[in-house]
Amino acid sequence: MYEHKSQPLAPFYIFTRRVIKNILIGGGIIGFCVLIGAIGYHYTSHLSWIDSFYNACMILTGMGPAIPVFTSSAKIFASFYALFSVMVFIANISLIIAPVAHRFFHKLHMQTDDEGDV
């Protein structure tokens, strides 16, 4: 997917395409996770769809629940959804940063004719 350190740095348009692709994939993952949260809150807490969406977004962004839940099933769902959200957040940030970090390190470790073999 990315060029090897012995290969030249990819042109800027390829780098830009990678960044945009990863942002779109990350956005799709976030959208899917919000959908999971909204459905879960709607059916376990019996919240309206808009309140379920709101609670799912607040949990997914790390702000905490906006609307308290009272049933045991809702509390269990909210607990697992919060743990799931942390993992999704970390994975998503990694996905979005990957092309930028790769380009930085590739440029840092590129071999040039003046340096010879490293």
Keywords:
Helix Hairpins; 118 residues; single chain; mainly alpha
**CATH architecture label:** Orthogonal Bundle
CATH class: Mainly Alpha
Largest sheet: none
Number of helices: 3
Average pLDDT metric = 90
- Fraction of helical residues: over 70%
Kindly estimate the percentage of residues that lie in beta strands according to DSSP.
under 5%
Kindly report the CATH topology.
Helix Hairpins
Unreliable runs? none
- How many strand segments? 0
Quickly give the structural class: mainly alpha
The whole-angstrom Rg is 21 Å
Q: Please, how many domains? A: 1
The N- and C-terminal alpha carbons lie at a distance of 23 Å
TL;DR?
This protein is mostly helical and 118 residues long. Helix content is 71%, strand content 0%. It has a single domain (15-109), classed as Helix Hairpins (Orthogonal Bundle), CATH 1.10.287.70.
Describe this structure in words.
Helix content is 71%, strand content 0%. The protein has a single domain, classed as Orthogonal Bundle (Helix Hairpins), CATH 1.10.287. It is elongated and about 60 Å long. It is built from 3 helices and no strands. The mean pLDDT is 90. By secondary structure, the protein is mainly α.
Topology:
Elements: H1 12-45, H2 49-60, H3 72-109
